[in-house]
């Protein structure tokens, strides 16, 4: 179980800060064999580490035996009434409520125009600016998109306040919950309080407008949550609405920005792949009818090779390298090993995606591995699996696709520091952004 109190956390942090994150899970694999399940003490809890496709599939699909089990820091920062901690029935109700405004065809078609304008304006501005922090600018783009979806009428001051607070909050999500100055969680918790204050202010203004009967210019996610009610007429309280919005802010822009950055870098580093992806985009443009303005959602769904580039980037980069569950009842594995009720389970998606038995030559960026290949359940976990599948996966891929479409057709990127070290917590990214 590792050292007393800290368990395997020092080994975990050392592996991820050393630039070799895979070394953490490789240690039990070398010691006990590639059995896929190992015991450890992580985030102050006895934990089972799960590192093979079949074992991950079992945990993710068995809602009777496992529930969400995120670390205390994640729950405190995202919110106790977000999807992270909700029981299955309540999770399904809220997921159904928010699914259409996020991933529905009509919703995505509506968002496409705003995403397209935001991306083209940003690329044009960057190309005239000289040096930019590419990841920082991409995060601003995706943040602007997600805030538009949730808070249509948010002014620039609200946008800046949300962005500053969210950035600080994000860095503490996978930290240990030590609320003392100097620790990542302490700064992140202060940022959450600021974030809650901003969202509460917007929500209060919406409520005042409702009581006065003022007309709405648009129905965004906050309005939908504010007006939603179940079959008994019960509405969501303020804490539920704010926690759900913070959760979607986290899920809705962070991954999209990082994957857009890495996909761009990989395309530039692989001229043949760049040429194939660009040729596909040029073909799409040639086939657009003269009466159609811009690229439609149906056009994006024809971009098969670009989709393969995105999936390979998701596999290769492993933005969400681990997921968390908790055991709801005593479980026996292979009739020999007991996992006690209340223990945590960590699903190491990174280990699955970098397993040479699942993906030959896993450290090679190879989009063609996805051609005509529907991954076996449990082998591709970029968006999770089962009832807790990422609710914003289609929106995320659309954002990434729009950016890469315009980038491939008209731009190049030159890195000032191509040998820059990679930092792996909370997400893989170059130190210099």
What are the defining features of this structure?
433 residues; Cytochrome p450
Give the helix/strand layout.
Elements: H1 9-17, H2 22-32, E1 37-42, E2 45-50, H3 53-61, E3 66-68, H4 72-78, H5 88-103, H6 105-127, H7 134-150, H8 156-170, H9 184-211, H10 221-227, H11 238-269, H12 271-286, H13 297-300, H14 304-317, E4 323-327, E5 331-333, E6 337-339, E7 344-347, H15 349-353, H16 393-410, E8 422-423, E9 429-430
Parallel strand pairs: 2-7
Antiparallel strand pairs: 1-2, 3-4, 4-7, 5-6, 8-9
Helix pairs in contact: 4-9, 5-6, 6-7, 6-16, 7-11, 8-9, 9-11, 11-14, 11-16, 12-14
Structure description:
There is one protein chain. The strands form 3 sheets. A 5-stranded mixed β-sheet has the order 1-2-7-4-3. A two-stranded antiparallel ribbon has the order 5-6. Strands 8-9 form a two-stranded antiparallel ribbon. It is an alpha+beta fold. It has one domain (9-413, 422-430): Cytochrome P450 (Cytochrome p450, Orthogonal Bundle). The chain contains 16 helices and 9 strands. Helix 9 crosses helix 11 (238-269). It is 53% helix and 8% strand.
